[in-house]
Amino acid sequence: METITEKSTNKMNGFVVLFLVIALLIFNIYLLYTGIRTDETSILWVFIPGMILFFIMFGSFTVVQPNDSRVIIFFGKYIGTIRQSGFWAINPFTEKRKVSLRIHNFNSDKIKVNDLHGNPIEIAAVIVWRVVDSARAVFDVQNYEGFVAIQSETAIRGLASEYAYDSADEKESLRGNQQEISENMKKQLQLRLQIAGVEVLESRITHLAYAPEIAQAMLRRQQATAVIAARAKIVEGAVGMVDMALKSLSEQHIVNLDEDKKATMVNNLLVALVSESQAQPVINTGTLYQ
């Protein structure tokens, strides 16, 4: 495939050419008036080519707005691009294709894909892009806007399948590392879209959720994981408090406990510290001898 890169083309100030076209029109009107007045048909042989030239030159004008461009094609050959805003005149036999250089947003639809673990998820993203090479956007792809849309959705699908939705360990996940995922998406998109002369400015995940058919099950799993982690933290703290209490009693010689009483005390303290319901204390006032 022939690769074409953008280049500048020759152009003239449109107002200067417009002045010449108006002068040609006035001259043709003068010839017509003179021919009718003097009844000289030979003047018509000058008037008719003059009017044809007028209409041809009138088709040479083009207006380019800021952050806009015109790709100029002369009988199937690319001769250059006009990027400078203003009123210009070029070869009237050329084709002028408009290519916007403004920043575009592509908002993808919600796509259902499987993550790294095979869980169905819904994901959507926004892609911020612009054309930096108008020639490649026109000649290297059929429709550069449609090309951006299709390649963006393909990149989103591929990226979602490379990561897990959520990860309990330190591995990267779609939910826990969105900044890193967005940068990776931007790099992949740039590789795909550079053939169309498109620059990717930013990419962001706008929607991320489990698919409805497994959302409730995954929510219960997340809740269970959170409860287990909280329980482990509570037990760890309770064991530390029991150990601290036993050491304090022993060091301060408050009471001497044998192994059976220590076991009973440990049991009571753990029950009081770990139990979800409020523990009801039982006060022992002494030992009853009969």
Give a structural overview.
The chain has 290 residues and is α+β, with helices and mostly antiparallel strands. It has three domains: 12-99, no CATH class; 104-210, Band 7 domain (Tetrahydropterin Synthase, Chain A, 2-Layer Sandwich); 215-274. It is built from seven helices and ten strands. The protein has helices spanning 14-38, 44-58, 134-139, 144-160, 178-193, 212-251, 259-274, and strands spanning 12-13, 61-64, 68-74, 77-82, 86-89, 95-100, 104-107, 111-114, 120-131, 198-210. The strands form three sheets. Strands 7, 8, 9 and 10 form a four-stranded antiparallel sheet that branches. β8 and β9 form a beta hairpin. α6 packs antiparallel against α7. The longest helix is centred in the last third of the chain and has 40 residues, at 212-251. The chain starts with 11 loop residues before the first strand and ends in a 16-residue tail after the last helix.
Q: Outline the low-pLDDT stretches.
A: none
Q: Please write the string of helix (H) and strand (E) elements.
A: EHHEEEEEEEEHHHEHH
CATH class of the largest domain: Alpha Beta
Category by helix and strand content: alpha+beta
Helix content: 40-55%
Principal-axes shape call? rod-shaped
Note the total helix count. 7
- Beta strands, count: 10
What is the straight-line distance between the termini? 108 Å
- Could you say how many structural domains there are in total? 3
**Beta-strand share of residues:** 15-25%
Largest sheet: 4 strands, antiparallel
At the fourth CATH level, what is the homologous superfamily of the largest domain? Band 7 domain
Overall average pLDDT = 80
The CATH architecture designation of the largest domain is 2-Layer Sandwich
The CATH topology assignment of the largest domain is: Tetrahydropterin Synthase, Chain A
Rg over CA atoms: 40 Å
